[in-house]
Design brief:
Number of helices: 9
CATH class of the largest domain: Alpha Beta
Number of strands: 12
Structural class: alpha+beta
Order of helices and strands: EHEEHEHHEEEHEEHHHEEEH
Helix content: 25-40%
Strand content: 25-35%
Largest sheet: 7 strands, antiparallel
CATH architecture of the largest domain: 2-Layer Sandwich
Length: about 290
Amino acid sequence: MFDKQLIATPSESLAQVEPTPALTDADRALQLYELHEGYGQWKVIFPGTVVLSARVAEIYGLGPDSPVPLQDLVKLYVAEDRGKLLTLIAQALQDRRGFRCRLRIERRDGGVRMIESIADLRVRDGRVIELFGASRDVTAEMERELQVQGRLKLVQDLVGDMPAPIAVLDDRLRVLDCSLYWLKAHRFVERREVIGKTIGQLFPETPPEQIAEYEAALRGQTVKTRRSFASPTSGAATQFATVLTPWYVADRKVGGITVVVGWSEIATTKRAAPAAAPVEDFDGSLLDMLKNVS
C-alpha cells in the first residue's frame, strides 16, 4: 500500500546559510506550526542516537522516555523503504544536503503508517554534528489521495470505454481524456495523439461559432448544439446533436468541459427489406400459390 506515493529526494541544506532575523519568537512559531500541521521534532546525534519529541515518539509508537538507537528506528521502516532512508542519510552526510521523504513504517502494534519527514544538518568547524528535522503522520492524507486517484481512474475507464464520442477538456480546452469513439469521430487513432493538446491545436480551423460555444460552457452554461461529422454509413457530412457541459472543482469554479456527441444517431441503419413482388395471375387458389414456390 502507498508504494506509488513514496518520496525520497535530497534538498538544499541551510547548514552554511546565515539565518534571517526572526519576526517573532522562533520557538513559539515552531510550536504553532507543529500544532496545526502535525509535525514533531527529532535529531540524530552521531554516531547514532536519535532523540524524539513526544509527538514523534507517539507517531512511531515508541515511549518518549529515552533516546533511541538509530538502527532501532530504521528497523521500524518497512523492509522496502529502509534502503531509501539510509541512502538519504548517507547522501546528506556526504554532500552536505538536506532531504525530504515520505516512507512507510510498521509500528509495533502492527499498523502501517506513512511518515513524511524533512531534514537538514548542523555543521560546526566543517564537521556534521547533528542531523535534525521534523516528521508527521500523513497516512490519512495518502488514503484520501488514493481514493481520489481511484475515482479518477474509474471516470477515465468509463469515458474511455463509453460507446459514444466523449471528450473531457480542462479550462484551457486541453484534452484530459476521451473515448475511442471520439477519436474515431475526429479521424484520430490513438489517445496519445490528442491528450494534453488544446482544441485549437487539434482543430486550427475551428469556426468562430464553435469557439463561442466553448467559451459559453466555460462560463457555466450547458450548450446544446449540432456539429458536423462524417457519417460512417454514407461518408457524408451530417449534423449530430452535441452537448457541452461544464464540470466544476471544489469551489464551484468551472474546471473544464465534457463534450458528448449523439453517436447513436449515426449507428449503422438496417435497410428495410424489399417489398415482395406482386404475383401475377393469382386467383387465390392453392395451386396458383405453389407455382411461385421454388
